[in-house]
């Protein structure tokens, strides 16, 4: 409407002045409702052409959008296990810091598993002490076997000498030889038992202890999971959990944690696809938000998403028809305040209106620029001023429009 009024002042109004004062035609006489088109045909035609050209220049080289939001992400409060709530530490809309406990589940089962794993570690330590005692017993048995073997060997050697003089029976010598072999076997068994105990002390029991300690650590981790902590600093919202409630990681979250800095650093805007050729990183923009009325916020384009979200394809078990993607999507643009504190006092999630302005300063500073191009670029900058005026008028009427639409 503002563009039409501006173009009328430049076309229809001068045409009417010419008809009125140069040709002495008056409204109600020569210029009537029926003759208006014929009498003001040149001004009306020029007004329509100029309006269309002005709107095209404004919305192409200085794009505007009402799809601007201070987008923020929330953190779902969920335990890592299913259980019944045993204790709640925070309330609704309470501010918490990162690492603060939120609630605790019933941990009787986990505590029992921790105690069982701890007793297994103690049992293995006891087995190690017993093995050390058995190792000392094995050393005594080896010494005893060695002594018995030496006695048998000495007696055998003596009997062999007597056998040469026919002083003893050959059967007695053979019996002593068998005794020596038996006592060698006893000594070997004692030494094998000692080696077994050494292996058990140095290899088996440490491995069993490590497994028991790992089981204890796992049980402790499961016990720690029963207490849910805040992952970030923020505000707890929709937290209606009470003692006795059953929390399920798939079906029932406990609440939502809104990070303290969520949605306060930038704005996310969705511009039309036709502006994909003019939207560039570093462009200057302006915005006005419902949450901060009567205020124009200077912004800068920090990132332009190089894909259109409406064309996203997610494989399913049905063959996709391209006709289902016929609805055009928007070009996602990220905006940040040009000056520090520009987005202060704007609640996350606020709806805004934004304009972006092309920069032609480098082209105008070129000494080889043509006259036609010079006039064209200046015309683009001029319509940018018009667009800025439109945004300021919207900043004035946006709160009133919002109140009317919401029924207040």
UniProtKB/TrEMBL annotation:
Domain of life of the source: Bacteria
Span-the-membrane segments of this chain are 42-61
Per the record's keyword annotation, is Membrane included, yes or no?
yes
Write down the SUPFAM superfamilies for this protein, in alphabetical order: HlyD-like secretion proteins
Keywords, comma-separated and alphabetical: Membrane, Transmembrane, Transmembrane helix
Q: Does the keyword Membrane apply?
A: yes
The protein in question is named Multidrug resistance efflux pump
